[in-house]
Design goal:
Bound molecules: 5'-deoxyadenosine, FE2/S2 (inorganic) cluster
Shape: globular
Order of helices and strands: HHHEEHEHEHEHHEHEHHHEHHE
Radius of gyration: 19 Å
Helix content: 40-55%
Number of helices: 14
Length: 352
């Protein structure tokens, strides 16, 4: 490890600011002992607030219908090879029951933007989860909606909302999405969600097509402005039935470096080691935790639909039961000297 590198890392950690040239330096450095110093520093920062604890969030992928057509995503509406499904209200509720038995304190309802699930239907589902699992957090990840819709979900009992901004740069955004979608609307959603009172998560894919270091820098600046409670990042992985099928996958090492940089800039943020990271590298999720991540999101969806919620190729855990992923992840966490905690895992500024 060289002194100059360590100096930069310590400066970022102390000031919680980063410049474009510092980011370039970190991402283009080729000395692996330098990477190691960054990971170690990020781990130490995470340990200050989270003490080597990892939170589990049970992910329920309740619909793979989507009206959007994002060029990177396997469930985009133009993909006629996608085998579409929706879980019924009862199926969603039984996923939560199972999750509760497995010890999860957060349920994440994730889906494509599916018009079948009207606000009324969603609110009823949220209300039922809230009354049947009063001590659990309910996280939604269902895309761009109006202020009124978000407000009704919040009033029905949802606590948190994940909506990756994907890229803060307008030109880059427009190369990843068709004209019907805009970065302004996405950012509007995030700010409104915060105003309503949700704990909010934004995020990006690392190595999405056309992404430059400058774009990533703009993403970090956007995050500093938004001040999200959660930040989701994972490598881009090509899906064979999308316009980006021949694009190279995102780099695991770069994803890990960015997890650490994010941990230094946002010491208290909830930061998952994502399934995409675990797909790109068999030890990706462990490496993510050792780079400063503190959340894992095991899949709670019924096995018969798992193989259908495919945003990218090669997704792991599509054949495992929820109970298997639960045990597997607990073991993996323990093996690297961390432990799964049974708290709800709110952002430290939100905890009551
Ligand atoms: N590779 C990696 N991540 C993807 N996502 C969508 N498609 C892909 C892909 N091909 C991510 C997006 C989205 C989140 C739910 O999954 O960032 O916001
Ligand atoms: Fe699903 Fe390991 S997390 S099998």
């Amino acid at each position: 490890m060289d002194e100059h590198y360590a100096g930069i890392i310590n400066e970022i950690s102390g000031s919680k600011q980063i410049s474009l040239s510092q980011l370039e330096y970190i991402l283009t450095n080729e000395v692996s002992s330098n990477d190691e110093y960054l990971f170690e520093t990020a781990r130490a920062v995470a340990a200050e607030y989270f003490d080597r604890q990892v939170y589990l969030r049970g992910l329920i992928e309740f619909t793979n219908y989507c009206k959007n057509d994002c060029y990177y995503c396997g469930i985009r509406c133009s993909n006629s090879n996608a085998d579409r499904y929706r879980l019924s209200e009862e199926e969603i509720l039984s996923c939560c029951d199972l999750g509760d038995r497995l010890g999860f304190k957060t349920f994440v309802l994730q889906g494509g933007e599916d018009p079948y699930f009207t606000d009324d239907i969603l609110c009823r589902i949220i209300e039922r989860i809230r009354s049947e699992h009063p001590s659990c957090a309910i996280t939604l990840s269902i895309g761009e909606k109006s202020y009124e819709s978000y407000k009704s979900f919040y009033e029905a009992g949802a606590d948190r909302y994940l909506l990756r901004h994907e890229t803060a740069n307008e030109e880059h955004y427009n190369r990843l999405h068709p004209g019907a979608m805009s970065p302004e609307n996405r950012k509007r959603c995030l700010y409104e969600l915060k105003e309503i009172g949700f704990q909010v998560g934004c995020g990006i894919m690392v190595g999405s097509p056309y992404q430059t270091i400058r774009h990533i820098y703009d993403d970090l600046i956007f995050m500093q402005e938004l001040k999200p409670h959660m930040i989701g990042i994972g490598p881009f992985i090509a899906h064979k039935d999308t316009p980006f099928k021949t694009e190279p996958d995102g780099d695991v090492r770069r994803t890990l470096l960015l997890l650490s940089v994010i941990r230094l800039l946002f010491p208290k943020v909830l930061l998952p080691a994502t399934t995409a990271l675990g797909t790109a590298d068999v030890m990706g999720r462990e490496k993510g935790i050792l780079a400063g991540a503190n959340v894992l999101m095991p899949n709670l969806s019924p096995v018969n639909v798992r193989g259908k919620y495919l945003l990218y190729d090669g997704k792991i855990c599509t054949g495992e039961e929820a109970a298997e992923c639960n045990m597997c992840l607990r073991r993996r966490v323990e093996r690297i000297g961390y432990r799964v905690t049974d708290g709800r895992g709110d952002h430290p500024d939100f905890a009551s």
